[in-house]
Amino acid sequence: MRGVRIAVISDTHAPRRGPLPAACIDRLRAADAIVHAGDWSDAATLSWVRGLGVPLVGVHGNVEESAVRAALPAVAELEAAGLRVGVVHDAGPAAGRVERLRRRFPGTAAVVFGHSHIPLLQTAPDGFLILNPGSPTDRRRAPRHSMAEIVMEPAALPRVTHWAVDDPPGPLDPGPVRR
Fold first, then answer.
1. What is the reported pTM?
2. Which residues does 105 contact at the CB level (< 8 Å), separation at least 6?
């Protein structure tokens, strides 16, 4: 079994930051589900991603058109392979973040968040993880434009890979991913 593949993006800030890179679109189309952790910015991008036909779980961020805020919640959850994943845009300060998100999303195996545009993967000793995919369109201080993929399988911990979606696309060297 290959598991359930969840493509994870955040902070697209469309259309100001341009279209999604082709490598990002390819991963979105190939996924079993898409998670967007907010800051879509415009309703056209939300509509376009929904039009891919892949199940979508998304939240609104802090920089959205009113139509996006009206269409999406501030927090969400999805279930895949018997595991739950929480989604929120802003996870707050780094200090205490893992435990704060664990309390906010009890019973989840992972929490996805955005806001900083910086790829991050932190795993607690019991396997609970928090994940920021970075941004496919606005890298800020990150070295590459990025997204992530979570593979969920029954009775297994989620597996996460960050992907560079600019040139050359491919798995992101773990060096730039803050752990």
1. 0.95
2. 75, 77, 84, 86, 88, 111
Q: Which two tokens mark 92?
A: 């707050």
Q: Is residue 145 part of a domain?
A: yes
Number of domains observed in the structure of the chain:
1
Closest by CA to 32, choosing from 60, 15, 8, is 8
Residue 123 placed within a domain: yes
Tokens of 73: 């919640």
Over residues 60-105, the pLDDT tens digits come to 999 999 999 999 999 999 999 999 999 999 999 999 999 999 999 9
Task: Tell me the three state secondary structure of residue 22.
Answer: helix
Cβ density class 30-66: b for 16+ within 10 Å, e for less: ebbbbbbbbbbbbbebbeebeeeebebbbbbbeebbe
Q: Cα separation of 1 and 131, whole Å?
A: 24
Residue type, 115: H
* CATH number of residue 90's parent domain: 3.60.21.10
Q: What is the CA radius of gyration of the chain?
A: 15
By three-state DSSP, how is residue 86 classified?
Answer: strand
Can you list the positions of beta strands (E) in the chain? 4-9, 33-36, 56-58, 75-80, 83-88, 110-112, 120-123, 129-132, 146-152, 159-164, 170-171
